[in-house]
Structures are given as structure tokens and as C-alpha cells.
Specification:
The complex is a heterotrimer.
Chain A (H helix, E strand, L loop, with lengths): L9 E5 L9 H5 L5 E7 L5 E5 L2 E2 L2 E2 L5 H5 L5 E6 H7 L1
Antiparallel strand pairs in A: 1-6, 2-3, 4-5
Chain B lengths: L21 H16 L5 E5 L14 E4 L5 H11 L4 E7 H7 L1 H10 L4 E6 L2 E2 L5 E2 L18 H4 L5 H6 L6 E6 L4 E3 L4 E3 L2 H18 L4 E6 L3 H4 L3 H15 L3 E5 L3 H5 L1
Parallel strand pairs in B: 1-2, 1-3, 3-4, 4-10, 7-10
Antiparallel strand pairs in B: 5-6, 7-11, 8-9
Chain C lengths: L1 E10 H11 L4 E4 L6 H12 L8 E4 L3 H13 L4 E5 L1 H17 L3 E9 L5 E4 L4 H6 L9 E3 L4 H17 L3 E7 H5 L1 E9 L20 E2 L6 H16 L5 E4 L6 E4 L2 H16 L4 E6 L1 E3 L3 H7 L5 E6 L5 H9 L4 E4 L8 H8 L1
Parallel strand pairs in C: 2-3, 2-4, 4-5, 5-8, 7-8, 12-13, 12-15, 15-16
Antiparallel strand pairs in C: 1-9, 5-6, 7-14, 11-13
The chains are: A alpha+beta, B alpha/beta, C alpha/beta.
The complex binds thiamine diphosphate and iron/sulfur cluster (SF4) (3 copies).
One iron/sulfur cluster (SF4) binds next to strand 1 and helix 2 of chain A.
Chain lengths: ~90, ~260, ~350
């Protein structure tokens, strides 16, 4: 279950099937762009969803969420242009 | 769009760890470091017994399962006959310092070019949270219901300090891998400094091995399940207790890999 | 494919070391213990002299616990590896052997049996029989057990052990006694080509292909059942070996292995001279036990006499197969079997 949305400057590619809802990335994102979903994934956890326009501002592509996720559920932080070119 | 994935991780594989446990973070860092250093194809992981045992279901690299505590000996056996291979193990504190201390000390003392990543959560995680050699004085575990009494069990074992007493190890470092929770006005913010430091330590340790030295990194992590804490509290405990009992630091860096990198 | 053969007078330990290097030994790991240490010492010399290009690794370990794990590492990486030890050391190796069995790691252990249990003594006994054939580690692990009765045979069995350990990917034990290790015998040394082993399964890095998994944990019972069925089928394919010495018309059949078999053969020859039709059945593989061969060899015999240097261990296997009364002449504590005593009991 990937969500390559690619409408923004930055996109966070999440493999929601791996997410265990530990909220580490949620609490690590300086912009608060990440939050847990209402629904649950195959493992039974509320998984993380990305919103470019976070509570504190737009995603800066800082890669922190990728670095801190212990479950390799955040696969990549890509720049929108880069991704658009690659597609 | 092509999504880049680490080639050392099985696509769609989920690691076997509890939510919020840094054991998973360590495996991810290993996969990242193997990729960065271009050594995924010659990597052999030796599995210890503990929560890291099932790492082979997550990491797509050669894997040899060791008996409890014996990973350094198995690594030595592999490295002796296959000097080209990059050989490493993830050992728990019980695995490395209780049942397997002799194997660890001998591999270190011989300076065998292998890498031990030691995950110190101060308890036996896999078996349900019993006292480990690293459990600090007073900590309540399943086998020390009134707190560890070091009068009887002896004080905790400081592995980095212990190995520093040997001349042959080339890289010895202790880092906190648990993200530090910082209390802001309205919320808690996890810092990413610890993760970055830990990743650097993984890379340095593997580099040291490639340069022919024995490397050992102790990661101060959490075990929220057996500490019986929320994920947030466990991170606080790791910083307020673990990191105080076991001061992080670079104990040895013979080849200067850490400085080269920064 | 022998290219040349020489006749030499060799001590058992030296002969075994030479044979191992000739057969392509790649790594030796060991911890000294009497009466096996001479094998290690001889290998140290051969290694220092670069007797063979293949024999790259010689390593004194910190304990037998470490030895077996070093062997497992080298074996898992697909290299021919061996150690020599004695009972107290083998006890420590039981853990690793069990892991090696399920993980299908080839390795070779020479157990020079000494007097036990406990520290016992360093005189020859055969008291590890039950341990090596019935309980080599936990969880029903096992290994092929070979028992040579001469130095010449021991040399051949080292080569055979290397081949078998890789063919079946399991531990192989050569169970011998201090007598074989320490005596001098004239042997023919075959300088054959090293054994060829298949190593595509081994863990040396995935090298742009599929990864190699050497593993003994299967948490899912249904999966583990399949693995155990596979291991059991593999085990059934191991062929038992034995030797018959004047068995055909033997009315008194000695059953003995290793050095005891040689004494039994002497006794049988003597008894024949006195008009008693005696013969010897000698298991060469102790595990798998050559039971059917024994039944066949024992079909004409009236008496079956087990000669062992222990309190009576193989006698249970013999009893199980022949299903009738079995006599035994045990020699314990490190006492050599005495032909006179055997003759006395069998007159
Ligand atoms: C010989 C042996 N004794 C005991 C065990 C049971 N056991 C499995 S894991 C473990 C402790 C693991 O603790 P640690 O090494 O700290 O790793 P963690 O699970 O905390 O990561 C024990 C005692 C075993 N598997 N083998
Ligand atoms: S890249 Fe940085 S800003 Fe963007 S979601 Fe991740 S942590 Fe937040
Ligand atoms: S850190 Fe990873 S596992 Fe935890 S909530 Fe975020 S994406 Fe999910
Ligand atoms: S038991 Fe503890 S150490 Fe093991 S995965 Fe769970 S949280 Fe991590």
C-alpha cells in the first residue's frame, strides 16, 4: 500500500502495511505533517498518513521522519519535481 | 513512479519487533549502511538469540543462525575462511554479556575483523523481561520484582569499558539510539540527533571492519513492552536512566573513521 | 584417483592429521584435551609447513563451546572444517551440534574417547557410545558416527567423513580411542586429490544472487514439521556400514567396534584354533547402526557376545536388533580388553 501522491514540493512515501503506529515520526516531524489514520492496516495498527500542509507549515523535506521510523514504513522522502520527472 | 527501496530489505517484509522498539531502527540502519558502503552482496549476518533472531525474515542478505551468545565465534569461523565477506551480528545484552561474554571477549581480543552491534535494553527482551547483566541497580524486572540488588548480583557490566581494556579492538562506541523526547509548550518533539548518530556509528563500525579491525557498538535502546511503559515513557527512561548509567562515548577509533566522516 | 601411495610407519594422531590434509581439510579449530591433542599438534606442524594450499586456517579456540561454533561458521560458509576432542569437550559441543543438525551445516568431529563420566581418566574407553549415537545434543539431533579399528581405516574414514558431511550436510563424528591415536602402525598413505564438495548453498554473501539462509528456527509448527520430515528422509538415506569376520558359520558371534573389534578378532581366531566356530561382526557406522546386517550375520549363531570398553552401551542396540539373549563382556575404567579374559568366558 504506497501513497505516491506527488502534488507537492515534497512527498513522503509511506508503506502503510509496515507501519505499527508508534507515533515516533508523528512526534518527530517539526512541521507536524504526519498523523495516524482513522482506519487500521493489515497488522491491526492505525497507520501514518502524510499531509503536506502540516499543522505548523509545509513539509520541508528534512528527512527526519524517514530517519526515525523503526519499521522502515517511511520509504523515502522525495521532492515533487524529482518524482514528477521520474514518472 | 519508481520507489527506491533498500536492496537489503525484503519488499513487503515486516520486522518482528514491538511498535516503537529501536531494534527495528538498527536493522534499518544496517541495511542503509550496507547500501551506502556497497557491501550488501558480500554481507553475512550472524543471528544471535534474542529479539534479533528473526532478522532474517526482514533482511535479504546471507544469514547464519548462532546459538545463544555464540555469534562472535560463528562470525570468527566465517571470517577466517571467507576474509572477503562482511560479517556482523546484532546481539542483545543478555546474549553478548551474559551467556556469550567469553565468545565476545575472544573475538575482540583477537581483533577479528567482524562487527558486533549490541542492543542494550537492560533486560532479556525476548524471554519476557528478566534481569540482564546490564540491568541497573534497583530496576524492577520479572526476576527482580523488588529491584535489582547489586549486592548479590554484582553491578552491571559495562561492555565498552570492558572491551576497552583489550588492545586489539579497533572501534568501540556507545550511542543512544532511542530518540530523545523534548517537551515543548504544547507537545513532545522527538529529536533525530540520536538516530543520525547511531547511523553514523553503524557506518563507522562497518568501515572499520573493511579496514581490518574488530568493531563494537553498543546501542542504548528501549524495551517498552518489558519495561511496562508507554513508548514515550520508555524513551524518557532511556535518556534519564540508561544514558546516565551507561555514558555514551567513543571509546576507541583506531582508524579515525568517525572523524573522516564528519 | 590416486596418484601415488607410500608406505609409512605412523602414529595414529599423525596419520589422521596427514589424511585430513590430504583429503582437503580447509580449517581446523580445536581446544587441547588428552588424548586428542596430538591430532591438533600434528596439524599445527602441517599448517606451519604449508603442507597444502587448501589448509588455510588453523586456530586454537578458547573452549570447546567456541570450537564447535567456529566449525559451524566455517561449515556454514562451505569450507571443510574439523576438530578433535574427547568426552568432556564433546559434552560442551552438544549445543552446537544440535544447531548444526537442523541448520544442515557440514562439520567433522573426531572424538577420542577417554574414561568417563566426569573427568574420569585419560585411558581408553568406549563410553561415549550412547552419547554420540543417541543423544548428540538436544531435540533429537544426530550425526553420522564412524568407528575405525585401525589407523589405516581411520585415515580412510577422515576422507569419508568430509564427503559424507557435505553430501548429507550434517555433523559427522569419528569415534575412536586413545589406543588408535597413540599406537604406531605401518600404513599406506594415499596422496589422493582432495575431496570435491558442493558449496552453492553456503553463506558467503549473496553475490548478486538469491541469499543463503542457514537457520534452525522455525516458529510455525507446520513449517517445522516439514523441515523435520525432510531431515528424517535425508537421514534414512545414510547407508550403514559393517564388516563381517568369519561370520558365516559362526556359532559364537562377537559384536564389537573400534579397537575392541580387533581384540575380538584375535579371540575369534584363537577360538577357531580350539574348534569353536567364532566370528566377529563389526559395525563401522555406529549411527546409523547396521542392524539388518547384524541380524543377517547372526542368523547361524548360538551365542552373541558384545565386547565393549564400557559398562554395556552398544549391547542395547544389539539386543534391539537380534531380539534374543545377548551376553556381554564389559571392560571399564580404561582397562584394555584382554584376549585371555574373552577366551576364558567363551570356552
Ligand atoms: C542456551 C539458551 N538459554 C536460554 C535461552 C532463552 N533465551 C532466549 S533469548 C534470551 C535472552 C535474550 O535477551 P537479550 O540478549 O538481552 O536480547 P533481547 O531479546 O533483549 O534483544 C534467553 C535467555 C536460549 N534460547 N538458549
Ligand atoms: S520530511 Fe520532515 S517535514 Fe516532511 S514530513 Fe518528514 S519530518 Fe515532516
Ligand atoms: S515511525 Fe514508522 S512505524 Fe511508527 S508511526 Fe511512524 S511510520 Fe509508523
Ligand atoms: S520485547 Fe522489547 S526488545 Fe524485544 S522487540 Fe519488543 S520492545 Fe523490542
Amino acid at each position: 500500500m504506497y501513497h505516491p501522491v506527488l502534488r507537492q514540493k515534497w512527498d513522503v512515501i509511506i508503506d502503510a502495511d509496515r507501519c505499527k503506529g508508534c507515533e515516533i515520526c508523528v512526534n518527530a516531524c517539526p512541521q507536524q505533517n504526519l498523523e495516524l489514520s482513522k482506519s487500521i492496516n493489515g497488522l491491526g495498527y492505525h497507520y501514518v498518513e502524510f499531509n503536506f500542509h502540516g499543522k505548523r507549515g509545509d513539509c520541508t523535506g528534512c528527512n527526519i521522519c524517514y530517519t526515525v521510523c523503526p519499521d522502515y514504513s517511511i520509504l523515502e522522502v522525495v521532492s515533487g519535481e524529482e518524482a514528477a520527472n521520474g514518472s | 513512479m519508481q520507489i527506491k527501496q533498500l536492496s537489503a530489505v525484503f519488499p513487503n517484509a515486516v520486522n518482528s519487533y514491538c511498535p516503537g522498539c529501536e531494534h527495528g531502527l538498527l536493522l534499518k540502519f544496517i541495511a542503509m549502511a550496507l547500501e551506502e558502503l556497497g557491501i550488501t552482496e558480500k554481507a553475512v549476518m550472524v543471528g544471535s538469540v534474542g529479539c534479533s533472531t528473526l532478522a532474517f525474515k526482514f533482511l535479504n542478505i546471507d544469514y547464519v543462525q548462532a546459538p545463544h551468545g555464540r555469534a562472535p565465534a560463528i562470525m570468527t569461523g566465517i571470517k577466517e575462511v571467507e576474509p572477503e565477506a562482511i560479517v556482523f551480528a546484532v546481539q542483545g545484552d543478555g546474549d553478548a554479556l551474559s551467556i556469550g561474554l567469553q565468545e565476545l571477549i575472544y573475538a575482540a581480543n583477537r581483533g577479528i575483523p567482524v562487527t558486533v552491534f549490541m542492543y542494550n535494553n537492560m533486560v532479556f527482551g525476548m524471554t519476557g523481561g528478566q534481569m540482564a547483566p546490564t540491568t541497573p541497580e534497583g530496576m524492577v524486572t520479572m526476576t527482580t520484582p523488588f529491584g535489582r540488588n547489586t549486592e548479590k548480583s554484582g553491578p552491571p557490566i559495562y561492555s565498552c569499558e570492558l572491551l576497552s581494556g583489550l588492545s586489539r579492538p579497533s572501534y568501540i562506541r556507545r550511542v543512544v539510539i532511542a530518540p530523545k523526547p523534548v517537551q515543548l509548550k504544547d507537545r513532545v518533539l522527538y529529536s533525530s540527533k540520536e538516530a543520525n548518530e547511531s547511523y553514523k556509528a553503524v557506518v563507522s563500525a562497518l568501515k572499520t571492519q573493511m579496514m581490518g579491525g574488530f568493531s563494537y557498538v553498543e546501542f542504548l535502546g528501549t524495551c517498552n513492552v518489558n519495561w511496562k511503559m508507554s513508548i514515550l515513557d520508555s524513551k524518557k527512561y532511556a535518556h534519564n536512566v540508561s544514558a546516565k548509567v551507561y555514558p555514551p562515548g567513543l571509546f576507541r577509533d583506531r582508524f579515525g573513521v568517525d572523524s573522516v566522516e564528519s | 584417483m590416486r596418484w601415488f601411495q607410500v608406505k609409512r610407519l605412523l602414529m595414529g594422531a599423525e596419520a589422521i592429521a596427514e589424511a585430513a590434509v590430504d583429503a582437503g581439510l580447509e580449517a581446523y579449530f580445536g581446544y587441547p584435551i588428552t588424548p586428542s591433542s596430538e591430532i591438533m599438534e600434528n596439524l599445527a606442524i602441517l599448517h606451519a609447513r604449508h603442507r597444502s594450499d587448501k589448509f588455510k586456517v588453523y586456530f586454537q579456540s578458547a573452549s570447546e563451546v567456541e570450537s564447535i561454533n567456529l566449525l559451524m561458521g566455517a561449515g556454514a560458509a562451505g569450507h571443510i572444517s574439523m576438530t578433535a576432542t574427547s568426552g568432556p569437550g564433546l559434552s560442551l559441543m552438544a549445543e552446537g551440534i544440535s544447531y548444526a543438525y537442523t541448520s544442515e551445516i557440514p562439520l567433522v568431529i573426531i572424538d577420542v574417547n577417554r574414561g568417563g563420566p566426569g573427568l574420569g581418566n585419560v585411558a581408553p574407553e568406549q563410553s561415549d557410545y550412547l552419547f554420540v549415537t543417541k543423544s548428540l545434543g538436544h531435540g533429537g539431533s544426530k550425526g553420522i558416527v564412524l568407528a575405525p579399528s585401525s589407523i589405516q581405516e581411520a585415515m580412510g574414514q577422515v576422507r569419508m567423513a568430509f564427503e559424507l558431511s557435505f553430501k548429507f550436510r550434517m555433523p559427522v563424528i569419528i569415534l575412536t580411542e586413545a589406543i588408535i591415536i597413540h599406537m604406531l602402525e605401518s600404513v599406506e598413505q594415499d596422496h589422493q586429490f582432495p575431496v570435491n564438495v558442493e558449496t552453492s548453498w553456503s553463506a558467503r554473501g549473496r553475490k548478486n544472487g538469491a541469499r543463503h539462509l542457514i537457520n534452525s528456527i522455525y516458529l510455525e509448527p507446520s513449517e517445522f514439521r516439514e523441515i523435520k520430515i525432510k531431515l528424517e528422509e535425508k537421514w534414512k538415506a545414510v547407508e550403514p556400514l559393517s564388516e563381517c569376520f568369519m561370520c558365516d558359520d559362526a556359532e559364537t558371534l562377537f559384536v564389537a567396534y573400534g579397537i575392541s573389534a580387533r581384540i575380538a578378532m584375535e579371540a575369534a581366531t584363537d577360538l577357531r584354533g580350539r574348534g569353536i566356530k567364532a566370528g566377529v561382526f563389526r559395525p563401522i557406522t555406529l549411527n546409523p547402526f547396521p542392524g539388518k546386517m547384524l541380524v543377517d550375520a547372526a542368523r547361524n549363531s548360538r551365542r552373541i557376545v558384545v565386547i565393549e570398553m564400557n559398562e554395556g552401551q552398544m549391547v542395547h542396540d544389539v539386543q534391539y536388533w537380534v531380539r534374543r539373549d545377548v551376553e556381554q563382556i564389559p571392560f571399564m575404567g580404561g582397562i584394555y580388553p584382554d584376549t585371555e579374559e574373552v577366551l576364558e568366558k567363551c570356552k
